[in-house]
Design brief:
The chain is built from 17 helices and 20 strands. With 540 residues, it is an alpha/beta fold. It has two domains: 242 residues, Response regulator (Rossmann fold), CATH 3.40.50; 239 residues, Response regulator (Rossmann fold, 3-Layer(aba) Sandwich). Strand 19 and strand 20 form a beta hairpin. The two termini are 14 Å apart.
């Protein structure tokens, strides 16, 4: 078996992890598991009425204890995070990690290292940092078909400003700084991302560059790594961000598309008996770029390892992300009479996929219809977007990456959600209008915490300390469901999110409802050296 084709087996066991996730009721868990979270071993429990684990538990699975209850106030959250930051700083100092005495090497946890002598002449570890400010640059989409995602940056800015005003960015040198957030509109066009990134690093001289989008981020991640400029927490899930050896200055932030694709496939395997004995057609609407191509590549990689591969046929129709309508490709897919439909796209096409399926018969005739994790915000599928009573969205499925949705009414009493909504409202932003506000709150959290950790390390805030903080990160993310860990560990674990809910949309409740247990895949995703020619990975 080739290194590339082993990815599906490396990701997760097919059925043991999904037994609970595929069979739970709409409550998201039993009375014994009020948060809808169990260990991997418990996820192998027979959910049809049995009480004990099945004979087979996923090989290499990591058992986790039930999570503690979520803090009841922002103050409780801050107390928890302060302890977690202190633990990360202690680990780094105890293990004597950091820049070597001669400044030639950065040593991180679990064998992570960067040869700083390879950085270009004139490189500065503190460029973009003054006594009073931290310049953070960003490219995002504020125009075009993906313009909704521009709200992500607005939410990040709101939280950056809040913590700046709180004096949160005081480092070990005694300096207190505020974030100067500079974002530019690339319209989800990689050709525009390149010159805008050049402006950020050459003219604005930013400390770090946040990018959004797989095709856009991939266009500049080699340049940023060659220039030794952090590209932290890329706002998509492309597996390429998990490459600590060849692209150590880049990190991802969420469950990778490879894991999501494998979970789609494993879900189909788990439900295989429902489809009879014939061929199973899986129809996919695919964004015609690195984003959509990653989904197809890794779904096919999963398929090569499935024991049912001879029964499953993937049928795809590619669509430009900027196209105003998707009627023709969706009609073509519906004509194939598929048993499963997957929208391997995002943005406006999340909503369009739901509407087109209602028109072409797939809503009634296709039992399992999946949206991509990028569509999880209820604003993509709520009645305000799809019209009427919102019933056309009912019954859609999603591998949601464990994220918390600010739009969900079930979170109305959650302390952090309430606080985040208040921060957005204070800045004139209505979280109900866009799921991207929820995403922005999600991505702001680890950036804020990593900057604070970096500042607490010896020498204070620097690019190398920021990278070190990210590679040793282990904190409780308030925008993740209980039981979904958020951490990395140098070269041993290069991906932040490696657990997911599997949820189903309830149009009456107007929210995604978790089905069964959180699926744990911690440590299963191998590192990815991306090959642009094949849209695949050399795994290591």
């Amino acid at each position: 078996m080739s290194n590339r084709s082993s990815i599906a087996l490396a990701l997760l066991s097919t059925s043991a992890l999904l037994a609970a996730a595929c069979g739970g009721d709409d409550s998201g868990g039993s009375d014994d598991d009020a948060n809808g979270v169990t260990s991997v071993s418990a996820a192998a429990t027979d959910t049809t009425g049995g009480s004990g684990p099945t004979a087979t538990t996923a090989p290499g699975a990591v058992t986790t204890e039930a999570p503690a209850a979520r803090p009841k106030s922002l103050e409780e959250w801050e107390t928890l995070w302060a302890k977690e930051r202190a633990a990360i700083v202690k680990r780094i100092t105890d293990e004597k990690l950091g820049t070597s005495a001669d400044g030639s090497t950065l040593e991180g946890p679990a064998g992570f290292s960067i040869d700083l002598s390879a950085c270009p002449p004139g490189w500065s570890d503190t460029e973009g940092v003054s006594d009073t400010a931290i310049k953070i640059g960003s490219t995002n989409f504020f125009s075009g078909a993906a313009a909704d995602y521009g709200n992500l940056s607005l939410a990040q800015e709101d939280l950056f400003n809040y913590y700046s005003e709180q004096g949160a960015f005081k480092d070990s040198t005694g300096k207190t700084r505020k974030i100067d957030f500079i974002y530019k509109d690339d319209g989800y066009d990689p050709a525009r991302t390149i010159p805008l990134t050049d402006e950020l690093i050459d003219s604005d001289k930013v400390f770090a560059v946040l990018t959004n989008g797989s095709p856009t981020g991939l266009k500049v991640y080699q340049k940023l790594n060659d220039r030794c400029i952090p590209q932290p927490l890329e706002s998509t899930a492309h597996p390429a961000w998990g490459d600590p050896v060849h692209h150590p200055w880049t990190t991802g932030s969420i469950l990778s598309y490879a894991t999501e694709a494998a979970l789609w496939g494993s879900f189909i395997d788990e439900h295989i008996d429902e489809f009879g004995d014939g061929k199973i057609k899986v129809a996919a609407l695919v964004a015609n770029n690195d984003f959509g191509n990653a989904y197809v590549t890794f779904f096919n990689e999963w398929l090569t390892s499935s024991k049912h591969k001879d029964r499953i046929e993937l049928i795809t129709e590619k669509v430009e992300f900027s196209t105003p309508t998707i009627t023709d490709p969706m009609t073509t897919l519906a004509a194939q009479n598929p048993q499963v439909f997957i929208a391997m796209t995002g943005g406006a096409q999340c909503t369009q996929s739901v509407l087109e399926a209602a028109q072409n018969g797939m809503q009634d005739n296709v039992e399992y219809r999946f949206l991509s994790a990028t569509c999880k915000g209820a604003s993509f599928v709520g009645k305000d977007k799809v019209g009427g009573d919102g019933s056309v969205s009912d019954g859609w499925w999603i591998v949601g990456g464990g994220s918390v949705d600010l739009n969900s009414s079930s979170n109305d009493a959650d302390a952090y959600v309430v606080w985040a909504r208040e921060q957005l409202a204070a800045n004139g932003h209505d979280y109900k209008k866009s799921g991207s506000f929820s995403l922005g709150v999600f991505y702001a959290f680890p950036m804020i915490q990593a900057l604070r950790i970096a500042g607490e390390l010896p020498g204070g805030l620097s690019r190398t300390n920021l990278v070190l903080a990210l590679r040793a990160f282990d904190m409780t993310h308030p925008m993740l469901l209980p039981g979904v860990e958020y951490k990395m560990d140098g070269n041993d674990d290069a991906f932040f999110g490696e657990a997911s809910d599997i949820s189903k949309y309830d149009a009456k409740k107007q929210e995604w409802v978790q089905q069964g247990a959180i699926v744990q895949t911690a440590g299963a995703q191998k590192k990815c050296r991306y090959d642009a020619a094949t849209s695949g990975c050399e795994l290591y």
